[in-house]
Design goal:
Layout: E1 33-36, E2 39-42, E3 47-56, E4 61-65, E5 71-76, H1 81-92, E6 95-104, E7 107-118
Antiparallel strand pairs: 1-2, 3-4, 3-6, 4-5, 6-7
GO biological process, one term: positive regulation of translational termination
Region (Disordered): 1-24
Domain Translation initiation factor 5A C-terminal: 45-114
Length: 120
C-alpha cells in the first residue's frame, strides 16, 4: 500500500446498542414512553370514573348521574357494536346500568358496562 492511497468508509450501522428494549405492557408507567410504528409515544395519565346511566337521547348522547348528584350529558354512545348493543338492550329492559368512562388527553369514552339490577 502506498501512502497516497485514501480509504473511505461508510458506516450505516451503530455499535449494536438499541435505543429501545422490550417490556411488558403492564409495566409501562404513566408519563413513560413507548414506541409505536417506530415513533415515540408518551403514556398519558388516564382517569376511570363510573356513572349511572339515566337516559339515552335520540341523537346518541347519554345522560349520566355523577357522584355529586348532577348530570353529565356530553358523552356519545360507544362505537363498539357489542358494548353499544349491551347498553341499549339493558336500558330498554329497564335495568340500572353503571358505565365506566375512561378519560385521557382531553377525550372521554364509555368503555365498560355493569348491570346492577332492575330499576326500582
Amino acid at each position: 500500500m502506498s501512502d497516497s492511497e485514501e480509504h473511505h468508509f461508510e458506516s450505516k450501522a451503530d455499535a449494536g446498542a438499541s435505543k429501545t428494549y422490550p417490556q411488558q405492557a403492564g409495566t409501562v408507567r404513566k408519563n413513560g414512553y413507548i414506541v409505536i410504528k417506530n415513533r415515540p409515544c408518551k403514556i398519558p395519565h388516564v382517569n376511570r370514573t363510573d356513572y349511572q346511566l339515566i337516559d339515552i337521547s335520540e341523537d346518541g348522547f347519554v345522560s349520566l348521574l355523577t357522584e355529586s348528584g348532577g348530570t353529565k350529558d356530553d358523552l356519545k354512545l360507544p362505537t363498539d357494536e357489542t358494548l353499544l348493543t349491551q347498553i341499549k338492550d339493558g336500558f330498554n329492559e329497564g335495568k340500572d346500568l353503571i358505565v365506566t368512562v375512561m378519560s385521557a388527553m382531553g377525550e372521554e369514552q364509555i368503555c365498560a358496562l355493569k348491570d346492577i339490577g332492575p330499576k326500582n
